[in-house]
Automatic annotation (TrEMBL):
Protein known as: Allantoin permease
Protein topology in the membrane: Multi-pass membrane protein
PANTHER family attached to this UniProt entry: NCS1 FAMILY PURINE/PYRIMIDINE TRANSPORTER (PTHR30618), PURINE-URACIL PERMEASE NCS1 (PTHR30618:SF0)
Gene3D superfamilies: Hydantoin permease
Pfam family, one: Transp_cyt_pur
GO molecular function terms listed in the Swiss-Prot or TrEMBL record: nucleobase transmembrane transporter activity
Coiled coil region boundaries: none
An annotated GO cellular component: plasma membrane
Organism whose genome encodes this protein: Penicillium subrubescens
Sequence similarity: Belongs to the purine-cytosine permease (2.A.39) family.
Localization terms from the record: Membrane
Transmembrane region(s): 99-124, 136-158, 219-244, 296-320
Signal sequence range: none
Length: 385
């Protein structure tokens, strides 16, 4: 009896949810359905230059804890660029030792502005666009916001392109002939017809998730963390098993020396640091949701460890890949592209799927939310399309 009641209740709940989804989709068929209702500010006057996103975070939205910060960095650090950046250090002629201390020092340097800027959001519960007014003033802060917004657009494009290469692996794993699509685009386009198809498919898959409010994406980021972490470990293990170990990584000697080596180390370290400085700048966009401000300081431990972890995976995989394929392959998607046959294509499918999920999650957390907060600054009093 109890089971029947529970089943009926679940069925009724799913039916109501399905009806709401159908009604929501019906509304989106017209331009007016994409107009968001005006959201009022939390503390400022009704006609002031503010709204709920650019104002102080309401208490009911302060739902983040220290564990949420850990989950956020798990999600954000697990991306293809973190894997590639470390693996490419091996590919250019340095050893795992230089790569490791470049990772540790580079990421540790990022934590300084990360924690200091994050403390603003954690204590005052405002986003980067508002926090920047304390340094630049009300009007000049718009220049800083525009620069950050443009940077987010560039990174969004980079992450989307990387995601499209992972989408290629998903499709070619099912239909190998997908790679043979004839190219009808000129060389000046910088992309082939097949790559354009993958790009459009990835973008189409990503777009609906961009419409979900950030405070409702918690379980997506948990899902991404589990999938990407499991796939990364499985990739490293599979390559090491096939190569009979991690390759010559432990005995590898640098192919450069002297000042050339020193400058290469500094360049690598700068590349690692620079890839996260945009995030360190706009981190108040996320720490504003913390219930207790002391959670922000744990980032100094979480971020370097997690970002270095995915980098170590990349270093080991690149070394094992050299044994198998004859060269250092620093892109995890390109590693999967080497896998053929039924079992190889199956592995390529799951690797491609995990990096598609990874890039969508990183795009949302690192680029889309930040850029949207920046855009709200310029027209906070009206509805957004």
């Amino acid at each position: 009896m109890a089971f029947a009641s529970a089943t009926a209740l679940m069925t009724s709940s799913l039916r109501r949810r399905g009806e709401r989804i159908k009604e929501h989709i019906k509304q989106k068929k017209s331009p007016s359905g994409w107009v968001l209702p005006r959201q009022m500010t939390t503390f400022a006057d009704e006609d002031s230059w503010s709204n709920i996103d650019s104002g102080v975070t309401p208490i009911e939205r302060r739902t983040w804890s220290t564990w949420t910060v850990l989950g956020f960095w798990f999600s954000d650090a697990l991306n293809a660029q973190g894997w590639e950046c470390a693996a490419s250090i091996i590919a250019i002629g340095l050893t795992w030792r230089e790569a490791l201390y470049c990772l540790i020092i580079g990421y540790s340097m990022v934590t300084i502005p990360l924690v200091l800027n994050g403390a603003i959001g954690a204590h005052l519960h405002v986003n980067f666009a508002v926090a920047s007014r304390s340094s630049f003033g009300f009007y000049l802060s718009r220049a800083a916001v525009v620069i950050r917004m443009i940077t987010a657009l560039f990174w969004h494009a980079i992450q989307t392109y990387t995601g499209s290469t992972a989408m290629t692996q998903i499709i070619r794993a099912i239909w190998p002939s997908y790679l043979n699509i004839p190219n009808s685009l000129p060389a000046s386009a910088g992309i082939t017809s097949q790559q354009m198809c993958s790009h459009i498919l990835f973008w189409s898959l990503q777009f609906p998730l961009l419409l979900i409010p950030p405070h409702k994406l918690r379980w997506f980021f948990v899902f991404k963390t589990v999938v990407v972490l499991v796939t990364s470990v499985a990739t490293v293990i599979a390559l090491c098993v096939q190569a009979g170990g991690a390759g010559e990584i432990w005995a590898q000697q640098a192919t450069v020396s002297g000042s050339a080596k020193d400058w290469m180390i500094l360049q690598s370290m700068s590349s690692i640091t620079g890839s996260w400085l945009t995030m360190a700048t706009n981190i108040p966009d996320f720490t504003r949701y913390l219930k207790k401000s002391n959670g922000v300081y744990w980032q100094a431990l979480f971020m370097p460890f997690l970002a270095s972890l995915i980098g170590v995976f990349g270093i080991i995989a690149a070394s094992a890949g050299k044994v198998l394929y004859g060269s250092y392959i620093w892109d995890p998607v390109q590693l999967a592209a080497q896998w053929d046959g039924p079992s190889g294509r199956c592995g390529a499918f799951f690797v491609g799927l995990s990096w598609v999920i990874a890039q969508i999650g990183t795009n949302i957390s690192a680029n889309v939310i930040s850029c949207s907060n920046d855009m709200v600054l310029f027209e906070p009093s009206g509805p957004l399309m």
